[in-house]
Amino acid sequence: MDLFDELRKEGKLTGSLVVKFQQKYGDLFYRSLELLQNNAVSIHKNIFFPSQLVVWSIQGHSGYYLIYPEVFCQCQNFLIEYIYRRQTFGYCKHLFAQKLAENLSIFQENRFKDKEFASWIKKFLP
Questions:
Q1: For residue 92, which of 32, 34, 17, 35 has the smallest C-alpha distance?
Q2: What is the Cα–Cα distance from 81 to 54, expressed in whole angstroms?
Q3: How far, in Å, CA of 18 to CA of 75, rounded?
Q4: pLDDT, tens digit, for every residue of 8-20?
Q5: What pTM did the predictor assign?
Q6: How would residue 88 be classed by pLDDT, with cut points 50, 70 and 90?
Q7: 10-to-3, 6, 27, 45, 70 alpha-carbon distances in Å
Q8: CA distances for 63 relative to 16, 49, 94, angstroms
Q9: Residue 13, phi then psi, degrees to nearest 5
């Protein structure tokens, strides 16, 4: 059982889980946790119907970030480290926060029609 499975099973961050996450992920864990605790930041699971496409997003003080879990984040850190520098896949704080939020069930779920996708995604384009 990995740490995220333990987190989902517990349903909350216990003291022992915090220690385990800190030992394994270090500062990334705390930077991601800070996003979850910041009332100005909101994590959204966006579901489009009838296709069942799921796209996550984080809305924060510096804008919106598009997230495909375990695959991609639109933030500069992810683009520089994992796309331009071609490092082995890793988490940026947004991908990590999304995974924490999903396993703790602390996100907002939004439902859209497939035909709304084109206009919805425009807020993520420069």
A1: 32
A2: 25
A3: 25
A4: 999 999 999 999 9
A5: 0.89
A6: low
A7: 10, 6, 22, 21, 22
A8: 33, 25, 12
A9: -85, 105
